[in-house]
Amino acid sequence: MAKRKIKIKKNKLGAVLLTCVLGLLFFSLVLRYGYVMLSGHSSGEDLIMRANQKYLSQLDQSAERGKIYDRNGKILAEDVDRFRLVAVIDKRASEDSKEPRHVVDVKKTAKQLAKVIDKSEKDIEKRLKTKKAFQVEFGKAGQNLTYHDKEKIENMKLPGITLYPEVQRFYPNGNFASHLIGMAQKDPDTGELKGALGVEKIFDSYLSGEKGHASYTRDIWGYIIPNSKNEVAPKRGDDVHLTIDSNIQVFVEEALDKMVERYEPKDLFAVVMDAKTGEILAYSQRPTFNPETGEDFGKKWANDLYQNLYEPGSTFKTYGLAAAIQEGVFKPNEKYESGYRDIQGSRIYDWNKEGWGKIPMSLGFTYSSNTLMMKLQDLVGADKMQSWYEKFGFGKSTGSMFDGEQSGNIAWENELMQKTSAFGQSTTVTPAQMLQAQSAFFNKGEMVRPYFVESVMNPVSEDTYYKGKREVAGKPITNETAKKVLDELDKVVNSKNSHATSFRVDGYRVGGKTGTAQVADPENGGYVKGANPYFSSFIGHAPSKNPRVVVYAGMSLAQKRDQEAYELSVSKAFVPIMKNTLQYLNVGGDEIKDKVTINKVPDVTGKTVEKAQQTLEEQSLIPVVIGQGNKVVSQSPTSSTRLLTHSHVLLLTNGDLTMPDMTGWTRDDIIAFESLTGITVKVKGSGFVHSQSQVAQSPIDKKTAITVELKSKEES
C-alpha cells in the first residue's frame, strides 16, 4: 500500500515539471512572436521588406548604347536589333493548344529555313531531328539575323519556329580604324555591352547611358495590383563624334592592306593629321582586327598611335636640326667632315659607312647624315639639346584621352646614348609625339596637340559634354626657324641630291623626312638581328610651302621583299594616302581650295521606292535599289550622315533581293551592301569596281557567291 502512494506522488511531480516546461516554452514563443510583430525583424532580417519583395516584381530595362560617328556623321558603331533562330521540337509544347507550337513537318521546315540561313537543308533537318531535346538552335547560322531575315522567316508561317530579339553592337565597316574605335563586348554576367578597347572603352561611361527599371506589386495569386506600377525610363547613351573622315580612312586601310600583302611586316601603321588643327583624319595599324566578327581580336592589344614605344630613327633628326637653327649654329653652306665618329669606344658611321667627305651642312641633312647630327649636338651643347627635345614634347605624353598613353624616354645617361639619340636611336617616342613635334613647322613655331574626338553629346537632351578643339601644346621655335626647317625638309624630297624621290607625289610638292632605325629586341636585349632588321618610316607634309596635311607611316621588320622594303621604305603606302587625301580635300598645289560640297542624307525608310529615289536625287545623291519590292525598309548610309555629292545611297526594299550594278562602286559602298543584305562580297584589287561575277538584277540570297574586281581609274 505504501509503495502505491509513493508511485502516485512521483507521477504528480513529473506532471508538474512537464507542465512547467511546456509553460516556459509557450511563454518564450509568445515573447518571440510578440517581438517579431512589434519590431518586424527576425534573425537580423526586415520581414516587412522581405514580404514586399515576395510580391514585388522588378524588370531592368537596358539603355541604348550611344553611337560612334565620323566627322561627317557616318555611323562607325551602333546598337542594332538582331534575331536568334530557335526551333521547338518537343510535341508536348502543343498540348492543350489549338495551333501546333512545335515543328510538325521537319522536311518542309528545313527546306524553307535553308532559303534564309547559311546552312544546308540536310544539316537543318538533322538538327530538327535531335532526340531528347525540347528546342534546338542552329549555331552561328541562326544567330545575328537581320530584320529582313526575320520578316522572311515569319512570312513562311512555320510552326515551332521562334525568333528571339537580341541587341548587338554593329560595326558596319569591319576592319576600319579598329584600334581607335575599339570594340564593345557583352559582359558574361550581366549581358550588357561594355567597352573592351579604344573609344568604346575610354568613353564607356558616356556611351552606356543609364538603365531604366519597372516595378509592380502582385497579390498572393500572382496578379498585378492596380496602380502599383512604378517605372523609370532608361537614359540613352551619349554619342561620340570622332575627327576621322571615313573617306580618308578608306585610303589608309587600302594602302596598309597592300603593304601587308607585299612585305608582310611585323608591325605597320599610318596616320593622317590636319597640319593646322591637329585633328586625326585617319589612323590604322597592322595587325588589326574585325570588331564585327571578332576575327583576329587580341592579336595585338596596343594602339600604336599612343601606346607603342619605338626608336624613331632619322625622322627624329628634324628636331635636332630645328634646335641648331634656333641656336644659330646650323650654317647651311658651312662644310663638315662626314663618315664616322668614335664615341666611348664605339665607332658610329653614316649610313653609307664611308660618308661623302667634306660636305655642306644642308646637303648633310638631305643625305640624312648621322655625323652631321652629332656635330650639331656638340655645337648646341648636350644639356641644351636635351632641353630642346623636352620643349618639343618628348619624354612626356601628349595629354590625349587615350588610356595607357606612353611618355617615351629621352636617353641621356651617357655620351653614347646622347649621340645615338641625335639620329633617333636609344630615345623612344610614340607617333602622337612625333606628329605634335612636327606640327611646330606648319604653325609658325607653335605645336598643336593631336586629337581624335570632335565631341561627346546626347541627341535626346542635346547636351554637349565635351568639345574637341585646336590646342597649342607649346611654342619651341620661332616662325623664322619653322620656315627654315620646312626649306630643309623640302630639299630632302625635291632636290637633285634627294635620296627620297620615291616619296614624290604627282601633281603636288611634298616635304618630309625619312627614317630607318634598328628595332629593339625585348626578349634577348639589344637589337633584332637579320638581313634587314629595320623600322622604316616617313613623316611628310603637303603642299610643301603651306602644309595642309601631314602623313606619318612606319613599318617594322618586313618578312617579304626585305631589300625593297629597305630601299623604298613606306613609300608605297605614303604616296597613295597623300595623293588621294589631297585630291579628296580639293587641295591644289600650294593653294588651299574650299572643300567639295557635302550633303546631308535624308531619311527615306518607309517611303515608296519611287518617292525615295526622287528625294535622294534632289540632294544630288545616287539611289541604288536592292530588291524587287515597292517600299524601302532600310537604307545605308542612314539619315543625317553627310556625304559628298554624287555618292551612292543603298535602298533595301521589302521584296526578294536582286543584284545591283556595282560598276564604279567604292569599297565603302560594298561594305554598306554587305551590312544591309548580310551577303559577303569577295573583293579583288583596289580602287573602284570594274567587274562583278553576278549579272545586275539577277536574284541573289545569302548563299550567292559574289566576287568583284576593283581597279584604279587609270586602269579602268
UniProtKB/TrEMBL annotation:
Entries under InterPro entries matching the protein: Beta-lactam/transpept, Beta-lactam/transpept-like, PASTA_dom, PBP_dimer, PBP_dimer_sf, PCN-bd_Tpept
Keywords annotated in UniProt: Membrane
CDD domains according to UniProt: PASTA_Pbp2x-like_1, PASTA_Pbp2x-like_2
Main localisation: membrane
Subcellular location: Membrane
Domain PASTA: 595-655
PROSITE patterns: PASTA
Pfam families in UniProt: PASTA, PBP_dimer, Transpeptidase
PANTHER family to which the protein is assigned, alphabetical: PENICILLIN-BINDING PROTEIN 2B, PEPTIDOGLYCAN D,D-TRANSPEPTIDASE
Family the UniProt entry places it in: Belongs to the transpeptidase family.
Record-given protein name: Penicillin-binding protein
